[in-house]
Amino acid sequence: MHGGSAAARLDSIRMEWMLQVIDEIDDAIGALRLASLGFAAEIGLVAAGGLGIGAIGAAFAAGAQYSLISTSSILLCAAAGLKYRGSQFHPNR
What we know:
Blueprint: H1 13-62, H2 66-88
Helix pairs in contact: 1-2
């Protein structure tokens, strides 16, 4: 038997209301989870950038080759530029 028979049908306003409330709570939790993951990713990018700048400074202080230092600086600037450009592009807004 599938839902076609009259005995298998259940109409309950309270059950429908409860399912709607649970669905809204689930949507709110999902939105908070996505926001927290986005925030954690931003913090991770800042930490990675800080470590990259620190590594360049340490390499400079240790007397590393200028070509390696300039290459890593260019890569760090390129990554920052791509991040900035990506934050400016919001197709859904």
